[in-house]
Amino acid sequence: MKKGGKLIIFSAPSGSGKTTIVRHLLEQPELNLAFSVSATSRPQRGKEKHGENYYFMSISEFKQHIKNGDFLEWEEVYRDNFYGTLNTEVERLWAEGKNVIFDIDVVGGLRIKKKFPEETLAVFVKPPSVDELKIRLKKRSTESEDKINMRVAKASVELATAPQFDKIIKNYDLEEALKASHQLVAEFVGAEVPESEEE
């Protein structure tokens, strides 16, 4: 893979607020960010669009891409539930002159960091507690109790990986977390931060 812009990774247990942070950062023009759309073998949910939320593919299709070495990173998150980042996706965004931002689980995030140590800023978003995480996931009411318990169990394991990341942002107060994330990314990509933010 040819090198291009910077890679910014936001990883966290499900329900930590990383998606909200990533969306906020994508709206800041001075950061020149583009979102890396992941591929997945899970079925589409609700209003999700192919190529916008995810690249949806069948399990066999996904496995074929693995065989071909088409992924920058991939993982079987739950049984037969694959997620991954296609090399072509990052190359496409770099060709547009963008810095690429990822909303990705911890294993995938650390794999990318390993492959591109110099170009990558890996940020771990820490929730106030595992209990708070459970409350947030229940509020979403998109998943069964079993699925929530599975995510909470996984969260404990994921929290232990936080020290392997470049930076940890505590999302106890969303406004603070957004501000800290913006400043971190701006420094990393060498962007000018509007003065009102620096006070």
Give the topology string: H per helix, E per strand: EHEEEHEEHEHEHHEHH
Gyration radius, rounded:
17 Å
Number of domains: 1
Number of helical regions: 8
CATH fold annotation: Rossmann fold
Ranges where pLDDT stays below 50 over 5 or more residues in a row are none
Query: Helical residue percent?
Result: 40-55%
CATH architecture: 3-Layer(aba) Sandwich
Percent of sequence in beta strands = 15-25%
Short description:
This protein has 199 residues and is an alpha/beta fold. It contains eight helices and nine strands.
Question: How would you explain this protein's 3D organization?
Answer:
- The protein is of the alpha/beta class.
- The chain has one domain (7-189): 3-Layer(aba) Sandwich (Rossmann fold), CATH 3.40.50.
- Helix content is 42%, strand content 22%.
- The chain is built from 8 helices and 9 strands.
- It has helices spanning 18-26, 59-67, 87-95, 106-115, 130-140, 145-159, 174-189, 195-198; strands at 7-11, 33-35, 38-40, 54-56, 71-78, 81-86, 99-103, 120-126, 167-170.
- The strands form 2 sheets. A 5-stranded parallel sheet has the order 2-7-1-8-9, with helices on both faces. Strands 4-3-6-5 form a 4-stranded mixed sheet, with helices on both faces.
- Helix 5 (130-140) runs antiparallel to helix 6 (145-159).
- The longest helix has 16 residues, at 174-189.
- The relative contact order is 0.22.
- The model has no long low-confidence stretch (mean pLDDT 91).
